[in-house]
Amino acid sequence: MESKGVILDADSLGSDIDLSSFQQIMPFQIFGATNSDQVATRIESCSVAFTNKVIINEAHMQKNPQLRYIGILATGTNNVDLVAAKKHGITVTHITRYGTDSVAQHTWGLILSLVTQQYRYQQAVKQGRWSASEFFCLLDYPITELAGNKLVIVGYGELGRRVAKIGEAFGMEVILAQVPGSPQQNEKNRLPLAEAFAQADIVSLHCPLTEQTKHLINEETLSWLSPSAYLINTARGDLIDEMALLQSLMTNRLAGAGLDVLAIEPPPTDHPLVAADLPNLLITPHCAWGSRQARQRLVDQAQKHLLNFLANKSSGVVVC
């Protein structure tokens, strides 16, 4: 029987990425989006399935014994039951190191917008306040220079390293914080979280979401930060207790925050952080990874993983 493949949520990769090259490997059916009730039917008769965020669980695998390969079009693997995949002899691959430059520059876009108050000054210009000024400039909002400030990195993998390197180029002192549950947490050059946060001017999160790191940022850990500090999260939304963060921002116990991720995505319109409309909070819609170059690297890597599998060069669960 001819092998067939399916891509379950292609639209999540953006409309400007051409996926037709998958058809050169084997016949593929490409769906823009797939809800949970459609998964089992859409992978029916397919030996290969690709998903970005659509969940593939053991029930789907049981109903489709012909499924031999699942390609996750993302780094995170929590949407596929890896234990069940191993049980059913299904190879699973995911994507790594495709969006480092994109996420790092987005992280710094958030930092720079906050410390320069650029977005607020732009609003002031549009509101006519510069035109009405007695002077040549507006200096209504405090501007902070990065040089000499301390940047705390929580999660010193590839992304954390890239963000740290850029921070050093700005003349910042980089401090590495221990990540609960990480095998590197006790390395000599990593400070306990409380000690690192007490020194921080900016904290940038780049650690994975685990049982140990869920709500790593909470009422207690936020209290360790100076009221002049900024918090940046381009990792996972559930690293932060969002209500605790909101309270800190509303009471000016934190200078500001820049978030590209939330615990629920997409968020409801009445999500407390989205609805708050705070001048010291920037939220972007999980787009840090989304440069066209990064998304193309993702697709290219996914195709390479599939070709390696078909050539019997990879097997097992989560092959990078």
TrEMBL record:
Signal peptide: none annotated. The keyword NAD applies. CDD domains: 2-Hacid_dh_4. Keywords: NAD, Oxidoreductase. InterPro entries: D-iso_2-hydroxyacid_DH_PdxB, D-isomer_2_OHA_DH_cat_dom, D-isomer_DH_CS, D-isomer_DH_NAD-bd, NAD(P)-bd_dom_sf. Residues 16-315 form the D-isomer specific 2-hydroxyacid dehydrogenase catalytic domain. It holds the Pfam family 2-Hacid_dh. The keyword Protein transport does not apply. Belongs to the D-isomer specific 2-hydroxyacid dehydrogenase family. This is D-2-hydroxyacid dehydrogenase.
